[in-house]
Amino acid sequence: xxxxxxxxxxxxxxxxxxxxxxxxxxxxxxxxxxxxxxxxxxxxxxxxxxxxxxxxxxxxxxxxxxxxxxxxxxxxxxxxxxxxxxxxxxxxxxxxxxxxxxxxxxxxxxxxxxxxxxxxxxxxxxxxxxxxxxxxxxxxxxxxxxxxxxxxxxxxxxxxxxxxxxxxxxxxxxxxxxxxxxxxxxxxxxxxxxxxxxxxxxxxxxxxxxxxxxxxxxxxxxxxxxxxxxxxxxxxxxxxx
Length: 241
Fold this sequence. Notes:
The protein is an alpha/beta fold and 241 residues long. The chain has one domain: Rossmann fold.
Protein backbone atom coordinates (compact mmCIF):
# COMPACT_ATOMS: atom_id res chain seq x y z
CA UNK A 1 0.00 0.00 0.00
CA UNK A 2 1.23 3.47 -0.93
CA UNK A 3 -0.10 6.78 0.40
CA UNK A 4 -0.41 9.47 -2.25
CA UNK A 5 -1.65 13.06 -2.38
CA UNK A 6 -3.50 15.07 -5.00
CA UNK A 7 -4.92 18.60 -5.21
CA UNK A 8 -8.56 19.41 -5.87
CA UNK A 9 -9.85 22.13 -8.20
CA UNK A 10 -10.19 24.41 -5.17
CA UNK A 11 -6.63 23.63 -4.04
CA UNK A 12 -7.31 21.26 -1.14
CA UNK A 13 -4.82 18.44 -0.55
CA UNK A 14 -6.48 15.02 -0.64
CA UNK A 15 -4.76 11.91 0.71
CA UNK A 16 -5.47 8.41 -0.55
CA UNK A 17 -4.07 4.93 -0.11
CA UNK A 18 -3.37 3.00 -3.30
CA UNK A 19 -3.51 -0.78 -3.06
CA UNK A 20 -1.85 -1.66 -6.35
CA UNK A 21 -2.22 -5.38 -7.02
CA UNK A 22 -1.85 -5.44 -10.79
CA UNK A 23 -5.48 -5.28 -11.86
CA UNK A 24 -6.91 -3.31 -14.77
CA UNK A 25 -9.91 -2.02 -12.83
CA UNK A 26 -10.14 -0.08 -9.56
CA UNK A 27 -12.57 0.37 -6.67
CA UNK A 28 -12.52 3.76 -4.96
CA UNK A 29 -13.63 3.55 -1.31
CA UNK A 30 -15.33 6.71 -0.01
CA UNK A 31 -15.81 6.70 3.79
CA UNK A 32 -18.47 8.67 5.59
CA UNK A 33 -18.36 11.37 8.24
CA UNK A 34 -15.83 10.70 11.02
CA UNK A 35 -14.23 7.80 9.15
CA UNK A 36 -10.94 7.73 7.25
CA UNK A 37 -9.00 5.61 4.79
CA UNK A 38 -6.85 4.37 7.68
CA UNK A 39 -9.79 3.33 9.86
CA UNK A 40 -9.46 -0.36 10.62
CA UNK A 41 -12.77 -1.10 8.90
CA UNK A 42 -11.70 0.51 5.63
CA UNK A 43 -8.10 -0.68 5.58
CA UNK A 44 -9.42 -4.22 6.06
CA UNK A 45 -12.06 -3.78 3.37
CA UNK A 46 -9.45 -2.37 0.99
CA UNK A 47 -7.14 -5.34 1.58
CA UNK A 48 -9.99 -7.76 0.96
CA UNK A 49 -11.19 -6.05 -2.22
CA UNK A 50 -7.61 -5.90 -3.53
CA UNK A 51 -7.72 -9.64 -4.18
CA UNK A 52 -9.64 -8.91 -7.38
CA UNK A 53 -9.25 -5.15 -7.94
CA UNK A 54 -6.77 -2.40 -7.36
CA UNK A 55 -8.22 -0.25 -4.59
CA UNK A 56 -8.06 3.42 -3.69
CA UNK A 57 -9.23 4.39 -0.18
CA UNK A 58 -9.50 8.15 0.23
CA UNK A 59 -9.73 10.73 2.97
CA UNK A 60 -12.29 13.40 2.23
CA UNK A 61 -11.35 16.96 3.14
CA UNK A 62 -11.32 17.60 6.86
CA UNK A 63 -10.46 13.98 7.64
CA UNK A 64 -7.27 12.06 8.26
CA UNK A 65 -4.31 13.19 6.18
CA UNK A 66 -6.34 15.42 3.83
CA UNK A 67 -6.46 19.18 4.20
CA UNK A 68 -9.39 21.55 4.41
CA UNK A 69 -12.64 21.35 6.36
CA UNK A 70 -15.44 18.83 5.90
CA UNK A 71 -18.57 20.30 4.32
CA UNK A 72 -20.98 17.35 4.65
CA UNK A 73 -21.27 16.69 0.86
CA UNK A 74 -21.21 20.32 -0.34
CA UNK A 75 -17.62 20.28 -1.63
CA UNK A 76 -16.60 16.66 -1.28
CA UNK A 77 -17.51 16.07 -4.93
CA UNK A 78 -14.35 18.02 -5.76
CA UNK A 79 -12.33 15.56 -3.66
CA UNK A 80 -13.78 12.55 -5.42
CA UNK A 81 -13.35 14.21 -8.81
CA UNK A 82 -9.62 14.65 -8.18
CA UNK A 83 -9.21 11.00 -7.18
CA UNK A 84 -11.29 9.75 -10.12
CA UNK A 85 -9.19 11.89 -12.46
CA UNK A 86 -6.09 10.13 -11.12
CA UNK A 87 -7.78 6.76 -11.66
CA UNK A 88 -8.81 7.62 -15.23
CA UNK A 89 -5.17 7.77 -16.23
CA UNK A 90 -4.39 4.37 -14.74
CA UNK A 91 -7.41 2.07 -15.01
CA UNK A 92 -9.85 0.78 -17.62
CA UNK A 93 -12.90 0.76 -15.34
CA UNK A 94 -13.62 2.86 -12.27
CA UNK A 95 -15.98 1.63 -9.55
CA UNK A 96 -17.18 3.65 -6.54
CA UNK A 97 -18.08 2.32 -3.10
CA UNK A 98 -19.45 4.96 -0.75
CA UNK A 99 -20.56 4.66 2.86
CA UNK A 100 -23.06 6.93 4.63
CA UNK A 101 -22.29 10.51 3.50
CA UNK A 102 -19.64 8.96 1.25
CA UNK A 103 -22.52 7.04 -0.28
CA UNK A 104 -24.34 10.30 -0.94
CA UNK A 105 -21.24 11.67 -2.66
CA UNK A 106 -20.82 8.67 -4.99
CA UNK A 107 -24.50 8.80 -5.99
CA UNK A 108 -24.34 12.48 -6.83
CA UNK A 109 -21.06 11.94 -8.67
CA UNK A 110 -22.57 9.06 -10.61
CA UNK A 111 -25.46 11.29 -11.67
CA UNK A 112 -23.06 13.92 -12.97
CA UNK A 113 -20.55 11.64 -14.73
CA UNK A 114 -21.12 8.93 -17.32
CA UNK A 115 -17.79 7.09 -17.15
CA UNK A 116 -18.29 5.27 -13.84
CA UNK A 117 -18.58 1.50 -14.26
CA UNK A 118 -20.39 0.42 -11.06
CA UNK A 119 -21.59 2.11 -7.87
CA UNK A 120 -22.08 0.61 -4.42
CA UNK A 121 -23.93 2.94 -2.01
CA UNK A 122 -24.08 1.74 1.59
CA UNK A 123 -26.42 3.49 4.05
CA UNK A 124 -26.62 6.59 1.87
CA UNK A 125 -29.04 9.34 2.98
CA UNK A 126 -31.71 10.56 0.61
CA UNK A 127 -31.48 14.06 2.09
CA UNK A 128 -28.80 15.32 4.49
CA UNK A 129 -31.33 17.30 6.49
CA UNK A 130 -33.51 14.24 7.09
CA UNK A 131 -30.79 12.06 8.60
CA UNK A 132 -32.04 10.69 11.92
CA UNK A 133 -28.61 10.19 13.56
CA UNK A 134 -29.90 8.94 16.93
CA UNK A 135 -26.47 8.75 18.56
CA UNK A 136 -27.94 7.90 21.98
CA UNK A 137 -29.39 4.64 20.63
CA UNK A 138 -27.32 1.50 21.43
CA UNK A 139 -27.18 0.65 17.70
CA UNK A 140 -25.28 3.92 17.22
CA UNK A 141 -23.09 4.53 20.24
CA UNK A 142 -21.98 0.95 20.88
CA UNK A 143 -20.48 0.49 17.37
CA UNK A 144 -18.94 3.96 17.62
CA UNK A 145 -17.30 3.00 20.92
CA UNK A 146 -16.04 -0.29 19.49
CA UNK A 147 -14.42 1.54 16.56
CA UNK A 148 -12.78 4.21 18.73
CA UNK A 149 -9.47 5.27 17.19
CA UNK A 150 -7.87 8.31 18.88
CA UNK A 151 -5.83 9.42 15.86
CA UNK A 152 -8.92 9.40 13.66
CA UNK A 153 -11.06 11.32 16.13
CA UNK A 154 -8.55 14.17 16.50
CA UNK A 155 -8.06 14.36 12.71
CA UNK A 156 -11.65 15.35 11.88
CA UNK A 157 -12.22 19.04 11.11
CA UNK A 158 -15.79 20.07 10.21
CA UNK A 159 -16.64 23.37 8.58
CA UNK A 160 -18.83 25.69 10.69
CA UNK A 161 -20.32 27.16 7.52
CA UNK A 162 -23.66 25.84 6.27
CA UNK A 163 -23.52 25.38 2.50
CA UNK A 164 -26.07 24.36 -0.09
CA UNK A 165 -26.24 20.62 -0.67
CA UNK A 166 -27.58 18.45 -3.47
CA UNK A 167 -30.19 15.99 -2.24
CA UNK A 168 -29.33 12.49 -3.46
CA UNK A 169 -33.03 11.75 -3.92
CA UNK A 170 -33.30 14.65 -6.38
CA UNK A 171 -30.67 13.12 -8.68
CA UNK A 172 -31.28 9.38 -8.20
CA UNK A 173 -33.02 9.08 -11.56
CA UNK A 174 -29.98 10.58 -13.30
CA UNK A 175 -27.49 7.93 -12.12
CA UNK A 176 -26.18 6.07 -15.15
CA UNK A 177 -23.99 3.31 -13.73
CA UNK A 178 -25.51 0.08 -12.37
CA UNK A 179 -25.98 0.79 -8.68
CA UNK A 180 -26.16 -1.50 -5.67
CA UNK A 181 -28.07 0.04 -2.76
CA UNK A 182 -27.27 -1.50 0.63
CA UNK A 183 -28.81 -0.83 4.04
CA UNK A 184 -29.22 -2.38 7.47
CA UNK A 185 -32.72 -2.98 8.80
CA UNK A 186 -31.74 -1.69 12.26
CA UNK A 187 -29.80 1.40 11.17
CA UNK A 188 -30.66 4.33 13.46
CA UNK A 189 -28.12 6.72 11.94
CA UNK A 190 -29.55 6.72 8.41
CA UNK A 191 -32.84 4.84 8.54
CA UNK A 192 -33.47 2.17 5.86
CA UNK A 193 -36.23 4.21 4.24
CA UNK A 194 -33.55 6.51 2.80
CA UNK A 195 -32.02 3.67 0.79
CA UNK A 196 -35.40 2.33 -0.24
CA UNK A 197 -36.46 5.73 -1.58
CA UNK A 198 -33.22 6.09 -3.53
CA UNK A 199 -33.60 2.60 -4.97
CA UNK A 200 -37.21 3.23 -5.99
CA UNK A 201 -36.36 6.45 -7.84
CA UNK A 202 -33.26 5.13 -9.62
CA UNK A 203 -33.81 4.02 -13.21
CA UNK A 204 -30.35 2.57 -13.84
CA UNK A 205 -29.71 -1.18 -13.49
CA UNK A 206 -30.07 -1.59 -9.75
CA UNK A 207 -30.35 -3.90 -6.76
CA UNK A 208 -31.50 -3.38 -3.17
CA UNK A 209 -29.84 -5.46 -0.44
CA UNK A 210 -31.10 -5.26 3.13
CA UNK A 211 -29.01 -6.76 5.92
CA UNK A 212 -31.58 -8.00 8.45
CA UNK A 213 -30.53 -6.87 11.94
CA UNK A 214 -27.70 -4.91 10.29
CA UNK A 215 -26.84 -1.39 11.37
CA UNK A 216 -24.92 1.44 9.71
CA UNK A 217 -22.47 1.68 6.79
CA UNK A 218 -19.11 -0.06 7.40
CA UNK A 219 -20.64 -1.96 10.33
CA UNK A 220 -22.46 -4.10 7.77
CA UNK A 221 -19.06 -5.22 6.49
CA UNK A 222 -17.66 -5.70 9.99
CA UNK A 223 -20.63 -7.81 11.11
CA UNK A 224 -20.86 -10.01 7.99
CA UNK A 225 -17.59 -9.63 6.04
CA UNK A 226 -17.98 -12.69 3.82
CA UNK A 227 -21.52 -11.82 2.79
CA UNK A 228 -20.61 -8.19 2.22
CA UNK A 229 -17.57 -8.99 0.09
CA UNK A 230 -19.41 -11.57 -2.00
CA UNK A 231 -22.18 -9.05 -2.56
CA UNK A 232 -19.68 -6.46 -3.76
CA UNK A 233 -17.75 -8.84 -6.00
CA UNK A 234 -20.94 -10.22 -7.55
CA UNK A 235 -22.13 -6.71 -8.35
CA UNK A 236 -18.81 -5.51 -9.71
CA UNK A 237 -18.53 -8.56 -11.98
CA UNK A 238 -22.17 -8.77 -13.12
CA UNK A 239 -22.69 -8.41 -16.87
CA UNK A 240 -25.35 -5.85 -17.74
CA UNK A 241 -24.88 -5.97 -21.54
